[in-house]
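Running co-folding for adenosine-5'-diphosphate.
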Amino acid sequence: MLGIMQDWPLTVNKVLEHANRINPTREIITRRVEGNISRTTYAELFTMSKQVSNALKDHGIGLGDRVATLGWNSERHMASWYGAMGIGAVLHTINPRLHPEQIAWIANHAEDKVLIFDKTFLPVVEAIKDHLETVKTFVIYADADTMPENSLGAVPFDIWIDGRSDECRWGDFPEDTACGLCYTSGTTGNPKGVLYSHRSNVLHTMITMQKDAIGMGANDVVLPVVPMFHANAWGLALSCPATGANMVMPGAQMDGASIYELLDTEKVTITAAVPTVWLMLLNHLQENNLKLPHLNKVIIGGSAVPEKILRAFEEDYEVDVVHAWGMTETSPLGTLGTLPPHMLDAPIEKRLEQKLKQGRPPFGVELKIVDDEGNDLPNDGETTGRLMVRGAAIAAGYFKGVGGNVLDPNGFFDTGDVAHLDEYGTMTITDRAKDVIKSGGEWISSIDIENIAVGHPKVANAAAIGIYHPKWDERPLLVVQPAQGENPTKEEVLAQLDGKIAKWWTPDDVVFVSEIPLGATGKINKLALREQFKDYKLPTA
Ligand code: ADP
């Protein structure tokens, strides 16, 4: 027997239609690449997006066609999203921090027909234009006055949509229609495309609006520092208009001073970014003796939150830190570190310890850990295994079938992370499967070592990698980037670890480098480091 309820397909155009109806005067505030601030209401964004739809239709774009962007967070970028998605085209966010060759490879693999981009990326697009096999139309986020000279025959975005009708039929397709495409950054092999559906994006939006997830409302002012090209700005490009929260878009400027200025002048209540961004902000606050009176919550994810960042926000600035874990394949939010009920009244040190963990899955996400043979492991807070995930907004495979079947017989996706789960579902990542250091058959968590090492005031960044050892197979080498103007010694760094990790986890050696390489999403590029130190001889070997 079927229920007798309305058919209301879960398509993302409904998000912006709702914002236009219910919160038309709430705003998107953008720092333009030219430096000035622009303000756009959700009602205006709705009109702009419809105009984008009509512009795309004029170029023959329709259901299933891929429209790519290389863009900072901005209201124009938002209009491109909703304009493309509304007519059933697939909005493909390309990460501009990738190598130009990789950008061309991705655009060709995706068969993008239109490329809309910020003028910051004009040199990159000009450099690869002869390699772009399918892109026919180039649009630059600019108006007539700010349009740069170019050899692409590109049009300025504002002129492209100007004067077009704001009437366009949206969403007349099934909810499982493809909606967004995002390639994983490909630290291993070629990038793989994750193809979100309208349904998965709408469900992810609803999942992240839960109070124990991001839990924002119409009165919030949200600053997504996390870029829209990094897994949908952690869903904020959808959940903000869905709730009516104001969005504050930092454009290309993500340094401490610029972010602080926006947090302060726009009275931001919730913000989200990777740890590197917060290190820059905290330095700026400390150097200039500033406070954060309006900010309630900071979402930190993408890599593990170092303790010094957690403590600074919670203790010095009274801002609630929500540690989040996820990946492009999980839309991306998989767990959030809001405090579970039994921890609310725990002593501060216990609460901080809990917040360093990656957190618990919201409704809509299921987690389990398994051994190498795929057998379930206990949720005892100790046993580590491969982290598997299943849910309403989790990838079932990759675009064009790359990588083959990625699900286990029960439909769980292998995250490539190594973690443990406790009886309340709190997940703690101990490593990525490929970064784990295997010493004498046992696993050493590189993340733990790194987080403690960066707690030393003379250390800016640290990475632990496994180096060949004749007896133990691998032993940890700690690569340290000293803080500006500091010269830490090996002994000082090792003393920082002493007593906080098992003795046998202690790195066999410490080396200092002027810069630890970061990948396109701001994470430590372990592949490059392993390559750099592949012939390194440990003193213990
Ligand atoms: P890539 O796999 O190319 O780095 P993603 O941005 O999808 O691209 O990264 C997902 C991975 O980032 C996760 O599988 C995990 O290893 C890591 N990660 C994300 N959030 C956290 C976190 N809070 N703590 C530790 N690792 C994290």
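Result summary
Residues 184-185, 187, 231, 301-304, 323-328, 358, 415-417, 429, 432, 521, 523 surround adenosine-5'-diphosphate (CB under 6 Å).
The chain has a mean pLDDT of 95.
Job closed.
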